[in-house]
Amino acid sequence: MIDIGLSKMALIGAVALVVIGPEKLPRVARTVGTLLGKAQRYVSDVKAEVNRSMELDELRKMKETVETAARDVEKSVHETSSSLEKDWREATDFDGDSGSDSPGTAYDSYSTVTPVYKHPGKNFRLKRGAVPQWYKARSGVRTKVQSGAARVARFRPKRFH
């Protein structure tokens, strides 16, 4: 930038005082200060935008490298798993028959049915029914459901006429 020292500023101020005059000098100085402030803010905004764009470019490059690495890892895992599945099929194939069953069947190499998972259902009622009634009463387990209004009406003192 421009190298302006104290002596040069004093010279510029003296010339401005002579040229502009003492009555208009404060207003001109205020306007010049405002314009310089706006120029500095504009320059700092441009610098910040350039820095953001540089960081964004770096992040994009980093994202591309991470995505490439993830694709490579996924490909190697897929290749490894397919080779393991192939080796497993070869090792467990006792009949010399390679892959005659379709992959969706539920039969293994011994032609027996593999058990299929079955959801247990709602047997929590059976478990709760196994607890004795006297234990439920003693421990405060509710056995009958009541609404809040019904509970208030049940325990409200009765009026005498």
TrEMBL record:
Region (Disordered): 69-107
Compartments reported by the entry: Cell membrane; Membrane
Domain of life: Bacteria
GO CC aspect terms: TAT protein transport complex
UniProt key word Transport: yes
Compositionally biased residues, Basic and acidic residues: 69-92
Membrane topology: Single-pass membrane protein
Family matches, as InterPro entries: TatA/B/E (IPR003369), TatB (IPR018448)
Keyword field: Cell inner membrane, Cell membrane, Membrane, Protein transport, Translocation, Transmembrane, Transmembrane helix, Transport
Gene Ontology BP term (one): protein transport by the Tat complex
Keyword Nucleus recorded: no
Molecular-function GO term, any one: protein transmembrane transporter activity
Primary location group: membrane
Annotated NCBIfam families: tatB
Record function comment: Part of the twin-arginine translocation (Tat) system that transports large folded proteins containing a characteristic twin-arginine motif in their signal peptide across membranes. Together with TatC, TatB is part of a receptor directly interacting with Tat signal peptides. TatB may form an oligomeric binding site that transiently accommodates folded Tat precursor proteins before their translocation.
Family of the protein in this entry: Belongs to the TatB family.
Oligomer status and interactors: The Tat system comprises two distinct complexes: a TatABC complex, containing multiple copies of TatA, TatB and TatC subunits, and a separate TatA complex, containing only TatA subunits. Substrates initially bind to the TatABC complex, which probably triggers association of the separate TatA complex to form the active translocon.
The protein's name: Sec-independent protein translocase protein TatB
Gene: tatB
